[in-house]
């Protein structure tokens, strides 16, 4: 049985896939869920467990958790990635689109955490890391449903920390800025003090740190990884 096990939900490509690779390199056995089938291929490459399903489905997530526990008997880290929610001018976003945004950017975390946190409590430790966005504290019109739903995620993370820190179960959010998995433009790059896009590998390194014992006293936090882009202090 492996010493450490990490579940990556939404790990087929981009930052989620980079996190799976980094955690595997750090010695974790990895279980990877994606809706595309890419997660299964990546998990096979990394010697782990792959599962094709949706983080919008409680049934898929339960099956994924059950398979992980059957294989390794524990879950030390849970990484929650997200897809892309609706984008439109603010007053043109329909009720259905708002609900979709909440599903994509907030309930993805709630669903997986509901299943995994009790396991971590029982084993007296674990870390949950959610991939959010640097714009959560400075909402931008270009990502309206993300801004609203992920503000809720930040509050949820604080509430989770209040209740579960005593069990040595931690939750933190990583807030990426412009990352190389997104389309690049000169205007966006020039607005970053570092004058470049970040890399998925840099986000993965932050996720791995927050999952590690080196971050054992960090919970309830939202950590910007944005090259200095955001101005809030």
From TrEMBL:
UniProt-listed Pfam families: adh_short_C2
Transmembrane segments: none
Family note: Belongs to the short-chain dehydrogenases/reductases (SDR) family.
Official protein name in the record: NAD(P)-dependent dehydrogenase (Short-subunit alcohol dehydrogenase family)
Higher taxonomy: Bacteria, Pseudomonadati, Pseudomonadota, Alphaproteobacteria, Hyphomicrobiales
